Amino acid sequence: MRKSLTSVLAVGALMVWAGAAQASTAVYPSPELAQIVKTGKYMGPDSCLECHEDEHKAWHASRHTVKATKGPAFGKEFEKNIYDWVRRDWDKLDTYMIVDTKDAKTNYMAARKVPMAEIDYVVGQVYKQRYMKYYDGGPLEVYEATTADGGISWKIDKSKTFQFAGNKDRAGYNFLYLEMNPKDGQFNKNNYGEWRSWQERCIACHVTGFDRTAWDQAKADFKAGKRGDLRELFVADLRVSCESCHGPGEAHVKQKSKKNNILNPAKITDVEARKMVCEQCHTRAQVSTHSSLAQDLRGYRPMDKYEDFAVYTRPAWGKGNRQVSIDGKGRRDHQQDMDMRLSTTIQGPHSTHAAMACFDCHDQHGVGGPGRKNATLKAATPRESCVKCHGAQSDAVLKVMNGRTGWEPSSFGKWGTGYGRQGNKQHIFNIEQHGRSFGINVDQYQWALKKGGDAKKEADWEAIWPWEKERFDKQGRMTAVGATPWQ
Ligand code: HEC
Ligand code: HEC
Ligand code: HEC
Ligand code: HEC
Ligand code: HEC
Ligand code: HEC
Description:
Bound molecules: heme C
Radius of gyration: 24 Å
Shape: globular
Strand order of the largest sheet: 1-4-5-8
Mean pLDDT: 94
Low-confidence stretches: 1-8, 10-19
Structural class: alpha+beta
């Protein structure tokens, strides 16, 4: 199969990449433009409307704008942001707010149902919805909720209440115990256990221009009694808007000349930076390098480097975990970036797939909007996204987008399989001998020894992604390749 693929590939791949590189060798962005991206001010999407009506229209109806929305606490007109059926059934649901964590298996829950009118923000519209309410960090009567499966599912014990002394570290928009689906009567029966606030944990991936320095200062001031509350969001826009991908627009909007003062992601010549335009949010980070409580790339602007902002979710070679299968396939949402990065190890350093950005196949402006032939792609069908390079092999290669076919299912306590993501969501562009979507072989597993660790002890070796080796080498950690470096 590889032979016939390669012959079809040569012509098509060249055509596409000539387009992507703009047939030019000059470095883009220029130092002047890079400086604008790094230090410029955000203007908001309304400032682009008069000159870029088409882009604005496509973007405005896209999924990037429905992400986080206001709730009824800001006015009755925002009630409609909550799914119809959830509004109807609100009083019957377990609308308790998560307050804090007691230990890894126990959360504190406010022992009072939150009325719908008190919901400050709603996150999600397409697949699922979660709700937030402001918590001031003060004392409360609480229940306990516990998990027996590492946080996948949670149960409230309403038979006892406790007095919680309060914790100013938890102040912010906190989540309710509910995770609801758009379909009438359908919700995630596992419930929800995130005890950190929206600002502390996730905000940067769902908005534009979260100012982490301002937030950190506000939190410090609040804890020191110099600030009344933590209701402010410190964002340039509540949605994922133009400037998330194009960088701040002040210079472009204000200067007369419209040339070379705003970023066009398609022209970026550094492969890594070009990919990161989308991957700054379409990734699953283990932890932010700017806050041990955060899982987003807070403060990221286009052209910044991933490793200055976050650490990737951890692989578990040969063992698997909730996020990653034994061979490195991503198992949860927004992990396509890591799937694609593995291509460098699978196919070698010149892999075409490893160098592609999400927007080489997906639509950047209208994603998920109405009237589209395909909800998220530039092409009308998945097949058309492959055909220019894979020709008649397209239907065959498209099978890799289902990471579950042919693999034994995984579940809590049984992560050690090659089972990946369902449907069309796997993005490891590699087929193994049985026609299944597959990551890397045992002889390609990579490891780093813990500082001061014993190279003979399995527990002292941390599984790392192949592209992280350089970073660990720089830190002076011993690295190794292979199935069992401890032997
Ligand atoms: C007053 C009109 C005006 C406004 C306001 C404006 N633009 Fe532009 N924009 C232009 C023109 C004209 C060009 C084409 C410049 C050229 O000749 O290359 C352009 C080009 C661009 C490009 C392509 C740049 C390139 O190098 O390929 C992007 C991206 C862009 N604008 C984004 C934005 C965003 C985002 C905003 C809002 C923050 C915005 N524009 C506001 C007029 C405007
Ligand atoms: C690293 C970036 C990132 C972080 C951190 C993050 N998200 Fe997301 N989230 C995304 C992306 C990207 C999607 C789109 C899912 C996909 O890949 O299909 C998404 C999807 C969602 C959805 C479903 C949206 C819909 O319309 O159905 C909800 C709800 C959500 N996230 C809530 C949260 C909450 C709550 C947190 C924090 C506890 C969080 N996210 C943290 C990037 C992130
Ligand atoms: C999710 C990221 C993202 C968002 C949000 C976004 N853009 Fe873009 N935009 C891109 C990318 C990527 C390209 C280049 C795509 C390509 O040419 O393949 C682009 C291209 C453009 C261009 C150049 C079009 C051309 O003809 O080459 C303009 C102008 C533009 N965007 C304006 C806007 C405006 C205005 C908004 C907000 C209303 C916006 N964009 C929102 C990612 C985004
Ligand atoms: C600032 C963060 C951010 C950036 C930058 C970003 N996205 Fe997203 N994207 C999201 C979030 C959050 C969602 C979930 C929206 C929802 O479903 O409510 C999403 C949804 C999507 C979806 C739909 C996923 C699904 O399962 O429905 C696609 C496709 C997508 N984005 C492509 C892109 C592309 C292409 C780029 C770069 C040009 C990009 N995104 C840049 C945050 C971002
Ligand atoms: C080589 C082309 C290609 C590239 C590059 C690519 N994708 Fe995809 N992606 C696809 C195809 C094809 C589908 C299937 C779409 C369908 O079935 O309608 C898909 C589906 C998805 C879906 C599921 C959408 C849905 O409607 O269920 C998400 C989310 C997604 N891709 C995110 C990404 C992200 C994030 C990146 C960049 C890290 C990326 N993709 C890069 C081709 C690509
Ligand atoms: C820009 C050209 C291009 C596009 C578009 C493209 N591919 Fe590829 N594909 C390649 C190249 C080149 C290779 C060889 C490995 C590499 O360079 O990464 C490859 C390899 C593969 C392989 C591995 C084949 C094997 O036998 O090991 C699969 C599977 C695959 N692509 C699937 C897809 C799918 C699915 C799509 C469409 C969603 C797609 N490709 C779109 C260029 C492309």
